[in-house]
Structures are given as C-alpha cells and as structure tokens.
Design goal:
By secondary structure, this protein is an alpha+beta fold. It contains nine helices and four strands; from the N terminus they run ααβααβαααβαβα. The protein has helices at residues 7-15, 30-40, 60-66, 75-80, 97-100, 107-110, 115-139, 152-159, 189-192; strands at 52-57, 83-90, 143-147, 164-173. It has a four-stranded antiparallel beta sheet. Helix 1 crosses helix 7 (115-139) and helix 2 (30-40) crosses helix 7. The two termini are 21 Å apart.
C-alpha cells in the first residue's frame, strides 16, 4: 500500500528534511509561527491535554540571556538563527482540561491531582507536540534545528518557572550555507517493527 500524501510532501516533511545547523538572515514572521501553530494544534495527545508551551526568543536581549546556557557547539547557531523557540512542558496543564476535554471534565482531578502524574503526562505529551511542531516548521517551508544540548536548569530559571520543564530549544529559519551534516543511518523496518 502506498501513502496517500504526495511524494513531494513526504520528502519535505520527512525524507529530505534535516536538522539545520546554519540559517540565512531571512526573518521568521509572526504570521508563519501562527500558521505553524494553527496546523499542529490538531495533533493528538492523551486527554487532549496539550501541555506544550513555546517561548519565542526574538529580541537581542533575550538571545544574550539564552546563548550562554547552550552547549558550546550550539551557541553559534542559536546566536544567529532568525528565530529560536524554547519548547517546554506545562506541569499545570490540568487546569485547562475541563475546557479541552469537556466530555469528562473530572479527568483533571481523577487522573492528574498529583504532581508526579502530571509531570509524567506533561513530559510525554509535550514531547509528542514538539515533534508535531518540528513537522509544522517543515510544512511552512522552513528548517528546524532542535537541540537538547543546553543547561536545562539554567534555561528554566532564565525563561520559565517551576511549573514549566524545558524540553528542547529549536532554531528556526531558512537553511544557510552548509546547513546539513551528512545523513546518518536509520534502522531497517525489521529492526524496529515486531509482530507478535
């Protein structure tokens, strides 16, 4: 069975998509970010909990606060990317559940009354949403440079609060010169998929 999605779209979103390491200076507009969000907000999560929160780092002052928290190799690209997004999990997402999961508003208290349960659910579902966000960036014709090489505690203290856990930092823009490392290998189907 072949995929329904056009092969060019498959390439754009997956086969030809890469983590960008350099970017042009073409700005990423608020309209582009809005379009990305308006697409990816429909991606499924458990209980429709949508715990992902995004901090857009646009100002020079904010960039100067972020770059020192990045791993040494990630600093130059974070300093020069047109837009940087800090993706975080909201550990207090359950307050939105009565509106987001209206057919079972009690889920807020039945499943997520305890902070450890919320943190686990928020981390897993925000990571899922982060993947949608990256695919959405690609769908907008932009490139993403997602990174987990940074001081998590430092980024949390500088940009978030105790109720938000940083997941990754994503550089966003049009790819620049020598943006791509060679494609790394992938596991084969039978190395990943098992039928029982």
């Amino acid at each position: 069975m072949s995929l329904v999605l056009d092969p060019a779209a498959q390439d754009l979103l997956f086969r030809e998509a890469r983590t960008a390491n350099t970017f042009t200076d073409e700005p990423v507009t608020e309209e582009q970010v809005q379009a990305i969000y308006d697409l990816v907000k429909y991606g499924p999560t458990a209980f429709n909990q949508t715990p992902l929160r995004v901090v857009l780092v646009r100002s020079a002052e904010a960039r100067e606060r972020l770059v020192p928290h990045m791993a040494e190799g990630n600093r130059p690209k974070t300093a020069t990317a047109p837009l940087v997004a800090i993706l975080a999990a909201d550990n207090e997402f359950h307050h939105e559940l009565p509106a987001l999961f209206p057919h079972f508003p009690q889920a807020k208290d039945v499943f997520f009354a305890e902070r450890p349960a919320r943190e686990q659910a928020a981390g897993m579902n925000a990571a899922l949403q982060a993947a949608y966000f990256i695919v959405g960036i690609r769908a907008a014709g932009l490139s993403a440079g997602p990174m987990t090489g940074f001081d998590f505690a430092g980024v949390q203290k500088e940009f978030l609060d105790d109720d938000h856990t940083p997941l990754m930092v994503v550089n966003i823009g049009k790819p620049g010169d020598d943006a791509w490392f060679p494609r790394s290998p992938r596991l084969a189907y039978d190395e990943v998929i098992t039928t029982v």
